[in-house]
Design a protein that fits this description.
Elements: H1 12-21, E1 23-26, E2 30-36, E3 43-47, H2 55-71, E4 78-84, H3 93-107
Parallel strand pairs: 3-4
Antiparallel strand pairs: 1-2, 2-4
Amino acid sequence: MSLPSRQRIKRPAEFRRVLARGKRSSSELTSVVAKSNDLTYVRVGLSVSKRVGNAVKRNRVKRRIRNAFANLSVVGGWDFVATAKPHSSAASYAELERAIHRSVEQIGIDVATPKAAPDSKVVM
């Protein structure tokens, strides 16, 4: 499952708004900033630098992070900006999903358990 286009943060001004006024949480694999929005759904923006790896690794990390946010059941409208750290390219999908889930909970957002089982194998 992926995020539809309307659920992605694309404009620099939207990134700046979330980064300037949002609540932050960090893990060993990602850094997440969240800000409530006036919408009824979640929007996600990603930042994956070249320190994560080559284009293939960066795109894999982006797909996995998008999928992890798509599997979160968050009540209300939130804007998230997730920044991948260099070690995220070596992590499995389950590890990335757990890290994002923990970061979102640390911010104080109520999250239901992920739809995908943590032991399930997802190949991307």
